[in-house]
Amino acid sequence: MAGAAIYYYPRGATSFRTIDLSRLSDLIVEPHREVSDARALSGFTLRSDLGSWRGVRIIAERLTDAAEIRELRNLESHLRSGGRCAFVRDTDRAIAWRGSSTQAAGSLSLSLVSGSNVYPYNGSAALTSGDEISVEDVNPDHRLELVRYTSISGAKITIADGLTYGYTNQTVIRYADFYPVLWMPEDQARSGQPMLSEHRRNWTLDLQLAESPGEVNRVTSGAESLATSTRGTDGGGFTIEQIVNLDQYDLIAGLGFSPDNNWSPYGLG
Predict the structure, then answer these.
(1) pLDDT tens digits for 24-56?
(2) Total structural domains in the chain?
(3) Is 264 domain-assigned?
(4) How big is the CA angle at 101 (ends 99 and 106), to the nearest 5 degrees?
(5) 58, part of any domain
(6) Residue 42's pLDDT is what?
(7) C-alpha angle with apex 169: 161 to 258, nearest 5 degrees?
(8) pTM of the complete model
(9) Please, how many CA atoms are within 13 Å of residue 264, restricted to the half-sphere of its CB?
(10) Which domain holds residue 75?
(11) Shortest CA distance to 182 belongs to which of 194, 170, 171, 191?
């Protein structure tokens, strides 16, 4: 297994920057759902479901490499100001696909728009049989589940576990510990301390970020247009932030998606 890494687009850069973590002490993923319940006199409970998001906490203890520490402290300014980043626990598995808009409950295969990895961070990224992948759609009726990957052929992935849920919205399928768009919540931006030192002899990264299914869906839909060293932001490439902030219709038209690829601009919230 390769090491963990953070990818982001610093202001003014023409391509993404990679921070390879020398160690990863813990990775904590916490699901959240915004709901409001009301109880009627009849005894029934009515729930307003405002959708879900996940907290992703990245912990790396006892960091001593000066260059790595500088990179992480520099990243902090980007995140506090609202910038996005991507994170993967294993750089050899920085992989995701755009799934078709229909996946049947119980199915042992996943239909893809294309069999190619849409993200540019590792051109040779691949999965091996038994790796966990996640399947998810979008809010407000967001569902996310984990299944075991078996193989891929063309635009179809074979899985070892039948799908728990059925999906009728566009789906994102990815290595389970690849988080392609993360942001720093307001409380962390205001007063969080992601980098702490022990008398400056060694440092601890405790980075508390958040992920929304709408942003994952939108960035994955445009990921093939993310800027790289060969097609930078000065040559038609986009940053994560630019794709997140594109109007839904501009996203479809501007990145050249066709209506026959099952990728709809609706339900990206």
Answers:
(1) 999 999 999 888 889 888 888 888 878 899 999
(2) 1
(3) no
(4) 80
(5) yes
(6) 84
(7) 115
(8) 0.88
(9) 14
(10) 5-39+47-253
(11) 194
